[in-house]
Every structure is written in structure tokens, then in C-alpha cells.
Specification:
Shape: elongated
Number of strands: 12
Largest sheet: 4 strands, antiparallel
Oligomer: single chain
Amino acid sequence: MGRKNQSDPTRKSFILNGIRYYYRNDKLCAMPAKREKVERPATEKQQMARDAMEITGTFPVNFFRLSPVLYFAWNMYGECFSLTYLDIFRKLNYPVLDLKLQGVDYFPDFHFCKGDLVPPRDTRVNREGWTFFLYWNAPAREYGRANPNDSLALGFFYDSRPDSPQFIMTSFTRGECFARIALPDSAHPETETVHLYPFFTSPDWSAYSDSRYVKAEVIDLVIP
């Protein structure tokens, strides 16, 4: 007896009750219709990629909820590189975002704001409890990127909350070279170190400066 024509529809595979039936060498064979997926442990690189996606997914979302100022600044900066505000923020700040902390692990390298205005120069701070006295220098000559009327904005972290950025829009201007700012203690002890990031915005929020990092510690004076 000759072999059946290979185009015979009875020779095609078919599924019945979760079993796939098919012909091989004129014999009917069977196998599970779906193979069980074997879970393999992630490689080190795969796990690093997953961690990166997790920390760069949650932290930036919380960051940009703080103020429209931050969205406008980063969106404008990202356009210079044909990137979205989230992508440019992640690109610059990913090296200091830690999954275990769910936040910043090295405050000096964190970028609170980016822009092309002249940033605060020679920034320094004195502190009395939760009142902070910020000082900076302004360029000797006035020009478009260093207007005396630029407004001072302040981003900050409490040292024990690297996962929780904070933001204040102040009424102080670049030309004053001084700001007195009272921060909420948020139930932190008065000895809590605070990480400050002052920067300037133009009066109409159409331009921004880079932020500058300043560490505000409580210094214990030891009297001999």
C-alpha cells in the first residue's frame, strides 16, 4: 500500500484536551500542547537591569510631582538632547540612585536642576536650628543669563530620607545674594543634616540654572 499524500488533511497536527497530536513517519505522536516554562535565575547583568528599571521608574515620578518648575526645567534641558524630561533626568542621576535606599546614595553628584542660566556662585550656608542662611555671589556685570531679578529656588533632602526630595520656591532674588529660609523639621531631630540644592529661575520660568550642592550640618562647638 502506498503512502498517504502529504497534503492529506488527516495528516496535519491537531490539539485535543491540551494534547497536540501529529504524524511522524506515518505514526501518530502526541505531546503537551504547551511546554512548561522553565524559570531560570536572572544573570547578574539581567538583575542589574531590572534594578535600574525599578529605581529609575519610581524615584523620578515622585520627583516631578514636587513642582511644575522641575518639569519645565528638565523638559527644556532634555529638548537640547532630543530626550524627554524623564530620560534626561534618569541619564544624569542614575549613577547616584540606589535600589536599597530607594533614593540618592551620594548627594554631591545629584542634579536637582539643569539649565543655562548662571548658577549661584560660591554658595555657602549658615544654620540655626531649622533656619538656614544662604549666601552666594552674583556676576559683577549684568547680562541675559544672570539677571538680578532671577528667583531663587531650593531643592533639598533630609539626610535620613534619601528617597524623599523636597522643594521650596522662595521670594529671594539673585541680586540679593542672601536668603533666610526656614525649613519644616518634619519630625526630624534638630541635628539632622540637610542637603541643599539652590538654583535660579527666570521670573517667567522660561530659563533655569544648574543647581549647586551645599551640605548643612549642625556643628558641635567644643569649648576647651
